Amino acid sequence: MMTFGGLTCREVVELVTEYLEGTLAPPERARFEAHLAVCPDCPVYLEQMRQTIRALGMLPEESVAPEARQELLRVFRDWKRG
Amino acid sequence: MTTRKRDSEETDPAGGEAPADDLRLLRALRAGDEAGFVALLDRYQPSLVRLALMYVGDRAVADEVVQETWLGVLQGLEGFRAESSLKTWIFRILSNRAKTHARREDRSVPFSSLPEPHADSAELAVDPDRFSPRDQLRSGHWAYPPRHWDKTPEEIALSRETSALLEEAVASLPLRQREVITLRDIEGLTADEVCDVLGITASNQRVLLHRARSRVRRALERYLDGGAGPA
Ligand SMILES: [Zn+2]
Questions:
Q1: Are the beta carbons of A16 and B145 separated by less than 8 Å?
Q2: A-chain residue closest to B145, CA distance
Q3: Is the pLDDT of residue B28 over 70?
Q4: At residue B188, does pLDDT exceed 70?
Q5: Are B166 and B58 in contact, with CB atoms under 8 Å apart?
Q6: In angstroms, what is the span from residue B231 Cα to ligand 1's centroid?
Q7: Which residues of chain A from 2 to 61 reach within 8 Å of chain B, CB to CB?
Q8: pLDDT tens digit string along B73-126?
Q9: Rounded to an integer, what distance in angstroms lies between the CA atom of residue A18 and that of residue A7?
Q10: N vs C: which end of chain B shows fewer Cβ within 10 Å?
Q11: How far is A39 from chain B (nearest CA, A)?
């Protein structure tokens, strides 16, 4: 049985964000990566986290109504006049 | 107009000090330059609407919040000391206005007055039943492991069903988690920028982001692979 970096999967899932943020201390990061190298399942979990993050970043933008833009230009002109 | 591409947000320096582009825009705005204002409007309006919706839910109220935000920006221009970027300053104004509205209009869900769970209270990323129990050989290792999703992030974000699911999952998060994940993952701010907008520490940002992302992943997994967990 391999050591899995001395981490259980249950511990790994709690470290995923720190890993992705690059804030794990070097020894912790090494243990995390050692676990990932031998665990068949945690890489799938990490990939799902990445997919989740990427999908969130691709959600369609809110549309901007042309009237709202016109209204804001009016606000700007009023402000400019003081 | 600036020569910078609209979609180059990731090249923005982290919060802390205003980039050169901001300083140019600031000078233009203070001089009453309408083209400068339009550039700013076009750059941030969709983000501001989305952020406002995150706080108030209703589009008409969100538009009102955004308009108040721009007025606040114009009125605050003279006092802006460029200690943060223009972007994080504008987002902070929006966040404050939106919270005021949400408190004032809390009809059914007064989320702003609900106590937030403490950052140190336990909230697990994954249902503990997914792992082997303590007394077993592979204690703490996956008993019901996650399985590969056959959908790309593009497919998840662009399909009506899964994008609605993502939005619902984010909307149902506690306020502080919702703020962090919206700014960070939906709007693409850096960790430093998020801390600057919300006035939170880096470690608090990470805890909130971790919980938020974990919950959204769980919601996606339930939909994409309902059979992954224990029956
Ligand atoms: Zn593992």
A1: no
A2: A41
A3: yes
A4: yes
A5: no
A6: 21
A7: 4, 8-11, 13-14, 16-18, 21, 23, 39-42, 44-45, 47-49, 51-61
A8: 999 998 888 778 999 999 999 999 999 988 877 644 445 444 455 544 579 999
A9: 15
A10: C
A11: 9
Do B223 and B162 meet the contact criterion of CB atoms below 8 Å apart?
A: yes
**ipTM score for this prediction:** 0.93
Question: What sign results for the dihedral spanned by CA atoms B38, B43, B48, B49?
Answer: positive
B136 vs A28, residue with greater confidence: A28
Using alpha carbons, list the distances in angstroms from residue B157 to A24, A58, B3, B194.
Answer: 29, 6, 30, 22
Local structure of residue B117 (DSSP, 8 states): P
Average model confidence (pLDDT) for chain B? 86
Average of per-residue pLDDT across B183-200: 97
Residue B50 pLDDT greater than 70, yes or no: yes
The pTM of this model reads 0.87
Task: Find tokens 């996606």 and name the residue.
Answer: B220
Residue B169 near residue A67, CB atoms below 8 Å = no
Q: How far apart are CA B160 and CA A60, in angstroms?
A: 10
SS3 B131: strand
Nearest to A16 by CA among A41, A1, B173, A2: A41
Please give the average per-residue pLDDT across B60-72, as a whole number: 94
- Here the CATH number for the domain that contains residue A67 is 1.10.10
pLDDT for residue B7 is more than 50? no
What are the structural domains, with CATH classification, of chain B?
20-104 (1.10.1740.10), 114-224 (1.10.10.10)
pLDDT score for B94: 97
CA distance B13 to B151: 33
Q: Which domain holds residue A64?
A: 3-81
Distance B115 CA to ligand 1 centre (A): 34
Structurally, chain A folds into a number of domains equal to 1
